[in-house]
Design a protein that fits this description.
By secondary structure, this protein is an alpha+beta fold. The protein is built from six helices and nine strands; from the N terminus they run H-E-E-E-E-H-E-E-H-H-H-E-E-E-H. Strands 3-2-1-8-9 form a five-stranded antiparallel beta sheet, covered by helices on one side. A four-stranded antiparallel beta sheet has the order 6-5-4-7. A hairpin with a 4-residue loop joins strand 8 and strand 9.
């Protein structure tokens, strides 16, 4: 009896001790194995998240940059189209008198011709009297290559015109009156940048060479050099505006007289 009891006591005293010795060591091994794996998993997840965030930011920034580039390109194209299609006022014409000349039976029209300089300022009005009501206005026109117009080149950013003569439909062109006198510096260049004056005056001096010599035109950046004219009936009570397209030639439009031209006509009437 006592032997069996000793064995049982010994057995109970041995098992908890063995269990205590084994369990902490197993737990430590399991914990040591589990924590490094968890840390690696967490690190991998963080790395994947960081990578995904980086890719998203890169793609987002790339899309934004593409949108900005496209917007800039669109605005640039709009500006080019505007430059190519724009036109500027180069002269106004109004009728100050119109009627049958005494003793001739001929209808005569007196025109006030107002040119605008390179700064858009009106020059003093000049008076021309023609036979008839249909007036022909001739000019030499230089049109530059489109790339200069697109880039708004300071010298070749728009077509230029030099008015040469004016005559009525009841007159011969040989009887035409000169608008810009040959051999003189046109009034439109007064006060203009000397570079513009020198460059354009050289073109006018060599105008027909420009018209006939392709190599010279290309060297000067000129697309076309030619004579152009507009003509139409002129009536009292209207202002006729001559415009020059940046990449084209002369146009003429009309509208009822108003503003400064009413004053100009009153001044002219008082001077008669």
């Amino acid at each position: 009896m006592s032997g069996v009891g000793t064995i049982q006591v010994s057995s109970r005293s041995v098992e908890p001790s063995a269990y205590r010795r084994f369990t902490p060591r197993h737990a430590r091994l399991a914990t040591a194995t589990m924590f490094p794996n968890s840390a690696r998993l967490i690190a991998l997840c963080l790395l994947l998240l960081a990578g995904s965030a980086g890719v998203w930011l890169y793609q987002h920034n790339s899309v934004e940059q593409q949108l900005v580039a496209e917007r800039q390109k669109t605005e640039q194209l709009k500006l080019i189209v505007t430059r190519l299609s724009a036109e500027r006022r180069v002269a106004d014409v109004v009728v100050s008198e119109q009627g049958i000349a005494p003793g001739t039976g001929t209808l005569r029209t007196t025109l006030l011709f107002v040119e605008y300089d390179h700064n858009g300022e009106a020059l003093p009005a000049r008076k021309f009297t023609i036979d008839g009501k249909m007036a022909h206005i001739d000019a030499m026109v230089v049109k530059f290559a489109g790339k200069f117009v697109e880039d708004n080149d300071p010298l070749r950013g728009h077509s230029i015109a030099l008015f040469t003569r004016l005559y009525g439909d009841k007159q011969s062109p040989d009887a035409a009156q000169h608008i810009d006198e040959p051999g003189t510096v046109p009034a439109v260049y007064r006060g203009a940048d000397h570079r513009i004056s020198e460059f354009e005056m050289d073109l006018w001096k060599n105008f027909w060479k420009l018209a006939d010599d392709p190599a010279y035109r290309q060297k000067s950046g000129v697309r076309v050099a030619q004579g152009e004219g507009v003509w139409r009936p002129f009536e009292p009570g209207f202002v006729y505006t001559l415009t020059l397209e940046n990449n084209g030639g002369l146009n003429i439009t009309s509208e009822p007289v108003k503003g400064i031209y009413k004053e100009l006509l009153h001044e002219h009437a008082d001077m008669r």
